Amino acid sequence: MNCLHGNPAHDTLVLVPQFPFMEDFRNYFDDKGDIVGLNNIVEVPGGQSSCSNIGKVASPSKRRQEEIQASMNSVYLLAHAYEKASQAPAKQLDRAAFSRSLGHVIDVLYSQNWKLFSGQRRMKENMFSLIHLQSNGSVKSLVNVGTWDSSWYINHLGIRWSNQTTPKSFCGVQCSPGHIRVLKDDCKCCWSCSACHYNQIVKDDFTCVDCLRGYWPNEDFTKCEFQWRRTLFDCTLAVVAVVFVFSFMVL
Q1: Which tens digit of pLDDT belongs to each residue from 99-134?
Q2: DSSP letters along the chain, please?
Q3: Which end of the chain is more exposed for a tag (fewer CB within 10 A), N or C?
Q4: What is the pTM of this model?
């Protein structure tokens, strides 16, 4: 998500979904030490599986959550083992072990054996982190500056914009008086400006409201005012028009 003017290398905020069950698997591999390789993944189903749900009827939504969790666990396990194996002195991977490990992942993704990698912890709903890309010279870092769990918590002091200036929204310029915002693709930070009717005022950023007969918008289109000179002029024109038509009919 990047709706900001500025340097894209520094002024970037990213929403990242959180999967708390991954922490357990990370700890599992850390406890095993540096000996972990691709061939160790075959040990995981027996040591880390959970059979607490087998034999129970689960709702489709719950089953879908467990399938997603199982898939994420499988991919994470494979990626972690791959990283450990690539750090070996020989820097060579055992292709046979890699194939076996990949087979386990495919089995989990595309078969009914997805429960093998299902841990007891479930996915936490509506949990996101707000990550800010920060730069200190040539060193770049990702800093967690907020979380979303049904509501936002943002550490505004942790957000450090380049040049110490908060960037403006990407295409959300301030609309002129008498104009309202029209959102682009339902993105709240991006909009175009549309003019209200000549006899309307701006109620809020997105709404135009009609003035009553005889009332007209003020200069900044924020309220309706009775303008006697304009009303008198309009009435005079109406009377002249009626007299002209009546005279034409008499003649």
Answers
A1: 666 565 555 555 544 444 454 443 445 567 788 887
A2: ---B-S-TTTSEEEEEE--THHHHHHHHHHHHGGG--GGGGGGHHHHH---TTTTS---HHHHHHHHHHHHHHHHHHHHHHHHHHHTSTT----HHHHHHHHHHHHHHHHSSGGGGG--SSPPPTTEEEEEEEEEETTEEEEEEEEEEESSEEE-GGG---GGG-PPPBSB-PPPPTTEEEEEETTEEEEEEEEEPPTTEEEEETTEEEEPPTTEEE-TTSSSEEE-HHHHHHHHHHHHHHHHHHHHHHH-
A3: C
A4: 0.33
